[in-house]
Amino acid sequence: MEAKRIAAERAVDDVRDGMIVGLGTGSTAYYAIQRLGRLVQQGLSIQAIATSLQSEQLATQLGIPLVSFSEMTELDLTIDGADEVDSAFNLIKGGGGALLREKIVAAASKQLTIVVDEHKVVRQLGKFALPVEIVKFGYEATIRKLFQLGCEPILRARDGELYVTDNGNYIVDCSFNQIAAPVELHRELNLIPGVVDNGLFVGMTKKVIVGYDNGDVQVLE
Ligand code: 5RP
User: For substrate, which residues are the binding ones (predicted)?
Assistant: First the structure.
């Protein structure tokens, strides 16, 4: 947890007065939102867009002013976590189920800073099952198509219930084991009817901050 906190808090150093900031989702992004909340209470003037209802609720509790896409066109900086990061800064995201909003917010941001602990840094993506968001209608057919791409697809459930995203969709966790060609896989997945988006983030970030268990932090650019 300490490694996550150190990385997330460092990312907040880049936030300036007047910025529109994207708030990520998950246990690492949580620390960035907490620090932003403290800075806002001390007078920092920002507006934010959250990538999940959970992060929106946290931001509201902390007094961080929120805006919507109808009020702005571009975010200055988004700070978010990831499940895996490779050396080319390709990512797997969506472990927390927020991949779609995370990708929409990241795509509208001038800069996406990814904050992770050292255990998320990998040589090749794929050990972490890739989350794919699919619509409920015909989900059995969509899952069969995912299987045909060579993965083991598991429909996500929590506490005995099917998991439903903030957008009212299902998540399928697809174990590929190794993802040798993330760009191609990203395209193939999103061509399947019923797939809304997948957790591969390719070419979306130029800055990754890694926190280490021994308290060190490394900024990779
Ligand atoms: C949520 C995400 C998270 O950023 C990712 O799962 C990492 O989570 P955590 O910081 O809790 O390890 O993509 O959809």
Answer: 25-28, 80-83, 93-96, 120
